[in-house]
Amino acid sequence: MTLRKTRSTVSAGARTLALAAAAAGLVVSAAGTSSAAYSGMTGAKFQQVQFGMTRQQVLDIVGPGACETGGFWGTSLQCWQSQSGDFNPYATFDFTSGDKVNGKAQEFLFKPVAPALTLAKFNSVVLKRTTLSQFKDLVGAANSCVPFWERYPDYPSTSTSDIAYRCFAPGYSEITGRGVAQFFFDNGVASDKVQSGLS
User: Fold this and answer.
1) pLDDT per residue over 92-132, tens digit each?
2) Contacts of 190 (CB under 8 A, 6+ apart)
3) CA Rg, the chain, in Å?
4) Is-above-0.70 flag for pTM?
5) In angstroms, rounded to a whole number, what is the distance separating the alpha carbons of residues 168 and 115?
6) Are 55 and 77 a contacting pair, CB within 8 Å?
7) Comparing C-alpha atoms, which of 93, 69, 75, 85 is closest to residue 152?
């Protein structure tokens, strides 16, 4: 079972969708959002896009044929690897009022290196107490996790941040969403977490 993808930003609606999807053991799909066939986004291009870049610099890296904007996406760029199938890799880039990148989000562009998340590791992350750096050590983020989104609403200041990771257990399923957890950090401290099928 899948959910159709709504806007992948760090808005309250996006966070609610992400939490609900993970809690229900569902994978969020990005299929069928437009009649145009957008394609060309990759993980390598996502990594090349840096905070503070202009919209045109992003399009120069990603390629305008990969991205759509306006309407449902507002001023964000939603950039697709392809739009065929149920689990379509994509990235979203948000911009300041001065048209500089202040938010990046992705789904399905990256896979964990060696997923080893367990329920015990999940439980070791304490809301309102665990810092982002502590989380990375506690869950083995370098091997088990991929970035979900990172945003600095007051960019170029980075003192206010909204960051999320998606982490995976051995044998996780992208089809069912089992063996997956999401962790959310406000200003560098754990604020929400949800898991499906960890043991």
Assistant:
1) 999 999 999 999 999 999 999 999 999 999 999 999 999 99
2) 125, 126, 127, 128, 129, 130, 131, 132, 135, 183, 184
3) 16
4) yes
5) 5
6) yes
7) 93
